[in-house]
Design a protein that fits this description.
The protein is mainly α and about 110 residues long. It is built from four helices and no strands. The protein has one domain: Histone, subunit A (Orthogonal Bundle), CATH 1.10.20. The protein is extended, with a radius of gyration of 20 Å. Belongs to the NFYB/HAP3 subunit family.
Length: about 110
């Protein structure tokens, strides 16, 4: 199982100059590397969860795994992203609750 090669190619293309090209072999190699990296990090996070008798790997586990494997720069960046994601998710839920309460009040009038 691996990421679709078209997605890998699109991501790679974002950092290649406009006139640059990426060979099929280059995309395939990156696809294999990315798949292996994801499996490596997820395996480490999963082992942590298993030791803690948990079944679900979460974002904090991925951050921990990245750090424990020596990818501290990635762990820091992902931690910042995770914080912003959770903040946005909380705001979204609060807005939905607020909208639902407003709709209920209007239907009573």
């Amino acid at each position: 199982m691996s990421l679709p090669i078209a997605n890998v190619g699109r991501i790679m293309k974002q950092v290649v100059p406009g006139s640059g090209k990426i060979s099929k072999e280059g995309k395939q190699l990156m696809q294999e590397c990315v798949t292996e990296f994801i499996s490596f990090v997820t395996g480490e996070a999963s082992a942590k969860c298993h030791k803690e008798n948990r079944k679900t790997v979460n974002g904090d586990d991925i951050c921990w795994a990245l750090s424990s494997l020596g990818f501290d720069n990635y762990a820091e960046a992902i931690s910042r992203y995770l914080y912003k994601y959770r903040l946005a998710h909380t705001h979204r839920e609060q807005n939905l609750l607020s909208n639902n309460n407003n709709n209920k009040e209007h239907s009573r009038v």
